[in-house]
Amino acid sequence: AQRVTQPEKLLSVFKGAPVELKCNYSYSGSPELFWYVQYSRQRLQLLLRHISRESIKGFTADLNKGETSFHLKKPFAQEEDSAMYYCALRNQAGTALIFGKGTTLSVSS
Amino acid sequence: DVKVTQSSRYLVKRTGEKVFLECVQDMDHENMFWYRQDPGLGLRLIYFSYDVKMKEKGDIPEGYSVSREKKERFSLILESASTNQTSMYLCASSLDSRSYEQYFGPGTRLTVT
Question: In chain B, which stretches have pLDDT less than 70?
């Protein structure tokens, strides 16, 4: 079965604290994983994908096949990081994305 | 810049009405998608289309149908709206099936009373 699990509905941290948004997946073969973000009153947009191995807005995510995880991390959270974050997996057919239920990140000063 | 537009930001309909949600993209994308977004349930795929007149069911197609007569336009149809279809509806497009990025519209908040 193909599935994406984001165990936390809400994650609240203080500005400057480290952030880790958890994502676990279930997939047969080599998965393609993504993080999408939706800031308040803005469109959902791609944040990063595992293949690129890049850092976007200070966020990184490493694919751990052993733990079937793709956690999103940032060493020092900023208030502008407050948003809804979705982890997504390309389906086996390669035609669509399977999204997790999302985690709301709230960063306060 | 890819632009995905949706016909309405807010819509209020009565139970039993036929509802049309329109989505237009201006970048000649092959693939288009309709999702609904509900708190605690995330994004769930309703239908997608990979070509004109082609469609595939997603995870929750019941109570919905779609139409893609032109490449740039993808319509979601609620044949007989029900209160449990009150939701935020998001349209998205991607260049083709190999493309990894989906571009989303602003969403339509539909309320069925």
Answer: 1-2
